[in-house]
Write a structure and sequence with these properties.
Blueprint (H helix, E strand, L loop, with lengths): L5 H13 L1 E3 H10 L7 H10 L3 E4 L2 E4 L2 H7 L10 H29 L3 H9 L1 H17 L18 H9 L14 H19 L6 H26 L2
Antiparallel strand pairs: 1-3, 2-3
């Protein structure tokens, strides 16, 4: 186990817990863990070579039962609770929903200059990191020339940065009708962001924090849904 590469080790621990992973799940796990997603094929080859997994179509399957039973005693805490598994989809829906909200709002106010204002709202240091993340993503899939939303800059921002863009002094007027005040949005994100970050790096989260995050996500998703309905209503 200790001889595995960092990328293979991260996938190894989750594979022990789940039994099988699709290639899309492996890529996403690498991304969430801050690892190079273009190493997906290498990870699959490595785990097969050492006899811990086998490839079955689009699946990587744990195949060494004796090893798996022992290794679970020493692997990182990859196994997630039912509560954790219920919170992650809500986190994903919330983050994707906020991206769409910010994009529509910035486009409606600034049109073709929307991205320039996103840059101003984030600051140069953060903007440079976002561009770096986007470029790394593109290089990770050199054979996929038409990736969906690969140019959408908000796909490469962090959840906290979406909140930063919303409370920015030049854009708050676009969002203030959705919240009592800035503090309400800040409090929501304060309860969501740490759980999202720990979940992305496979770190355990206390149950009361998961509960608080779940409630906040539901509240934010309700706000987003009401806003969509209001926009559709003539």
């Amino acid at each position: 186990m200790n001889g595995l590469t960092r990328e293979a080790h991260a996938i190894h621990d989750v594979l022990l817990d789940r039994g099988s992973l699709t290639f899309a799940e492996i890529v996403e796990l690498l991304r969430r863990n801050g690892l190079a997603v273009h190493r997906c094929d290498r990870v699959v080859d490595e785990l097969q070579y050492v006899g811990l997994a086998r490839r079955e179509g689009d699946l990587l399957v744990s195949c060494n039962r004796v090893y798996s039973q022992v290794a679970r005693l020493y692997a990182g805490q990859a196994a997630s609770t039912e509560l954790e598994r219920s919170v992650w989809p809500l986190l994903e829906q919330t983050e994707v929903g906020l991206r769409k909200l910010v994009r529509l709002a910035f486009d409606s106010k600034w049109g073709t200059n929307a991205d320039q204002n996103i840059r101003s709202g984030l600051g140069e240091d953060a903007w440079s990191k976002v561009i770096e993340n986007r470029d790394k993503y593109a290089k990770s899939y050199p054979r996929s020339r038409q990736m969906v939303n690969s140019d959408e800059i908000l796909n490469f921002t962090y959840l906290g940065q979406l909140g930063q863009l919303m409370i920015w002094k030049k854009s708050w007027d676009l969002f203030k009708h959705l919240f009592r005040d800035k503090r309400e949005l800040e409090d929501m994100l304060r309860d969501i962001v740490p759980v999202r970050n720990d979940g992305a790096h496979f770190r355990s989260v206390p149950e009361h924090e998961l509960d608080r995050c779940r409630i906040r996500c539901v509240d934010l998703l309700t706000i987003l849904e009401r806003n969509q309905q209001a926009v559709k209503t003539p």
